[in-house]
Each structure stands twice: as structure tokens, then as C-alpha cells.
What does this fold into?
Amino acid sequence: MIAKKNFSVVVTAMYKYYNEHGSNYPHSLCQLVDCGYLQEMPVNPYTGKPVRQVRIGELPNAGELSLLLGRTRFLDSAGNVQSTQSEMFLLGYVDSQYSKRKGMLRMNWNQMIAGPEFALQLPAEINSSLRMAWGGISYPCYGYVGPYQVEFDSIEEVLLRDGYSLPIQVQQFCDD
It folds into this structure.
């Protein structure tokens, strides 16, 4: 399917950007084109226009993507940040008929990501079109790597920092 191929092309470009920009992801998908990682945004097979980045909560067209950016922090034994690393979470949407075809794995944000408080639950009309996801942002998480304690941004922190109101509400936007 073309939308799935477009998703893979964008993920690959994101990682190339990340590797060549000091372990930082672009702040928008347009930067991939501006910096030469993509010649142009792939064409959305559902609209015939370039793939568009939408905010979570906006009713997406099939073939569109949402991008969230977060951080991982590496702390020493005293809790001081020694370094940070950029993290991303890319979401891809398809048409509702595609998800009913045999062999398509369905990603359910509300079961996998919403969390115990359900403050991050997506409205059904958006959750039903979400089929592809890639990235390293998750629940608040802590761990150890060598001598460092590792602290990850949660999806909730990322959404709040990006200006979202929780719980996420469906928003109608005009596409001019």
C-alpha cells in the first residue's frame, strides 16, 4: 500500500536527519524537504496532494501523519542531567476500509498508549483510522544504562508541552 510506503520513506528520512543533526529530530516534516532529506513530501494516494502533518485531535485524511517530539535524559547518580537525546513518535492514518483488509495490523492508541488515567484517549473517529506508529515516546519510564539513570518524557508531557489540552478533543480544521 502506498500510504504505508510513504510512512516508511518519512521514517527513514527522520532517522537520517537525526543521525546527521546531533541526535535531534526535525520539528516538522517540512524540515525533511527543506534540509534535502526528501526531494518533496510523498504524494498522499487518498488526496493526490503532498502528505500533510496534522495535529492529534484534528480529523485526519487517510495518508496523513502526526509527529510528536520528546526527550530522553541521562542522569548521574546525583540526579544531574549529563546528556539528552531527542525522541520521536510518528503516527500514520489510513482509510477505514484498508484496516478491514486481511493481514493489516490495527494500532489502537486507546489500548496501547492512553494510560491508566485515559487522559490521552483519542476520540473513536480518529483512533479508528490510526494504523501505523513508530518511535520511542511512551509511558513515563525510568531505567539504567551503564552508570546513568535514564528518564524518558511521557506522551502526556510531550502533548502538554506541544500545547494540547487533555483529554484530547476532536477539532475541525479547514484545509485550504
Observations:
- The chain has one domain: 2-161.
- The longest helix spans residues 2-20.
